[in-house]
Amino acid sequence: MSARRTAPVKPFVPVSEAPRPSGGFAPSLLPKKQDDLLQALLGEAARFLDAHPEWKGPRAAADIWNLFRHRNRTLSLDDFGYDEAASKPWHELYDFLYTVWWRVTLAGVENIPSAGPALLVVNHSGVLPWDGAMVKRGIMREHPAHRDARMLILDMFTTLPFLQPWLRHQGEVRACPENGERLLNRGELVGVFPEGVKGVGKLFRDRYRLARFGRGGFVRLALRTGAPIIPVTVVGAEEIYPNLFRMDIIGKPLGLPYFPITPFFPALGPLGVLPLPTKWWIDVGKPIPFNHGPEVADRPMIVNEFADHVRSTLQTMIDSRLSRRGNLFTGE
Amino acid sequence: MARKIAAGGRVVSFPKAGPPPARRTKIAVTGGAGFFGSRLVRSLLLRGEHEVVVFDLVPPADMPGDVKHRFLDLNLPFADGTLYKLLLEEKPDVIVHLAQLRSPSRQSTYAHELNSIGALHVFAAAGEAKVARVILGSLSLVYGARGDNPNFLTEEHPLRPDPQDRFVQDFVEAEKHAREHVRRHPETAVQILRFVPLLSPEVRDYRAKLLASPFAWTLMGYDPLVQALHPDDAVDAILCALDRPEVHGVFNVAPEGILPISSVRLFFGSLGIPVPHPLAYTLYEAAWLAGVGVLPGVHAHYLRYLCVVSNDKARRVLGFAPRKTTLDCALETARTRFGSGRLVDFDALEKAAKEADFAYERRVHPKRVSQRMRQEAAS
Lengths: 332, 379
Description:
The complex is a heterodimer. By secondary structure, chain A is α/β, with parallel strands linked by helices. Chain A has 13 helices and nine strands. In chain A, the strands form two sheets. Chain A has a seven-stranded mixed sheet, with helices on both faces. In chain A, helix 9 runs parallel beside helix 11 (217-225). Chain A is elongated and about 115 Å long. The relative contact order of chain A is 0.12. Chain B is α/β, with parallel strands linked by helices. In chain B, the strands form three sheets. Chain B has a seven-stranded parallel sheet, with helices on both faces. In chain B, strand 1, helix 2 (35-47) and strand 2 form a beta-alpha-beta unit. The relative contact order of chain B is 0.11. Chains A and B meet through helix 3, helix 8, strand 4 and helix 9 of A and strand 10, helix 8 and helix 12 of B.
């Protein structure tokens, strides 16, 4: 034991740790020893926390996360929770789809008034409701007043998790008469899809044949508020997902209104969700005035006749566009 | 002729001075020593136009004037008889029934006896004692949080809370007793005021506790809009109802504006931990049963779906004009309670809130704004 102390063993020095000639590389600014580096970092952190005590508060972690969640959001909401600032970043995606992917041609946008209430009645198609997004974006881009159309959306979308807050930030509203009336009464432009789920889930063989127009709720809405109805047709959206048949055996247990089978979905998996780049036309018709008075809204037969009139107007507009359309993808 | 001359030649009509009131209206407030009741009693005394009697377990503290207190325990089995005797002695013109628990309680029997059966006792006694008017405080939660609710519920909307939600069902039953009372005594006027849950720095109900906790489960992918009413505005609504004896019926008492619950969490510095919603119901129920939660599992519907009410009818009929928006209430409460040592910049938030309130008013009530501008231009 003592012999060892008097004559220590010479430590073995590996080649890599042997002193090397200086020069060649710039000397590092970091401390040589790892412990010194750690000490320096901890010291910096302590100094920072002393200067900014709010970073060590009990609610700091929650604040960081909540501020991150609100990075695009504002407090300037309307009563339906529409956050214009939060919807802005999505406009780039819509613009890409509008100009590049579907090359939308919007005709007759001057039929939409620059101010005051109006009810857009749109045909519904395409398994996912892209047509609504394109109508809305098209009016915002090309209308002289850049009007912001508020689309009334089916409950099945507005109650889904993640979609509920997202749609609200985009300014979409759940489709019900109360919401439509509130928006029209304060002079907003409102869009409805009277075909509803029957329209979006339409089969490929039924394309461009309008489904039943609900129970005429949109006509009652126009009669009660005195807003004109503006027919709007979308041609080209029926082919983005050719829905060959609906598989209820999968859709029913999942609680979905339909489970579409297309040539690409679900066979190609997530790639099948990519819509086909067809050529789209959006036609805006002449406004149909509905100033017959709110008491007419309680006469179902007249309401039904009005609804049928609007439906046949839309069908005529679709048929006339289809007859002039050439190739599905180029439109020539 | 003399009138014409007095008005400078123009024909005007002077309002006739009515006969002086025979006696000041006497208002009985049940639960007048509680959080809400004591605020109402204080406002009534400051107005000085009323005689006030409080029916509660204890007398209200710190009152600016004379207030009579009579002991009443609505949980006793024959409370209606006791109340009947008190009413015969006091002879109030109006009863304001506010003796209620405004948070879910684990003692569900006690809560049911007070919130539902208590109202039954009050209406039974009021009917026998022939009290001309009853004002019942209720909750806007009675509509129920449902996925297919319109964004703004009006008074005609059916009441559809979850049948398992005892706390809300008790208020629905209290309203049922009120309707029965109107059927039995068509000559009496009953006003039901459905208050949006309150929020101010002093409020300590279950929602304030939930928001104040450093973390809470959230239902993943759901972020409903909520409303928050300032207690002063709630008291104002009762005063408006008292001033209009000719109107009766149901009124929503709600502030202007809405706020996503995630933004309220931002103000309060509460961390929302997202869990898939079926699991969130279970976690809330487990915490409730374990004695640490503030709301039972079924009540988590209100953290998932909309239950926002419209105040149009109260504005139009009662002349109710709330002074604080939801945003003001939430921001004021968060700043007072958790404002120091925070990463959130409350000055910037308050500036943003002012702009937001202005933008809201211009977008949502364009007619009201243009009317006000016209009035300002005229004056």
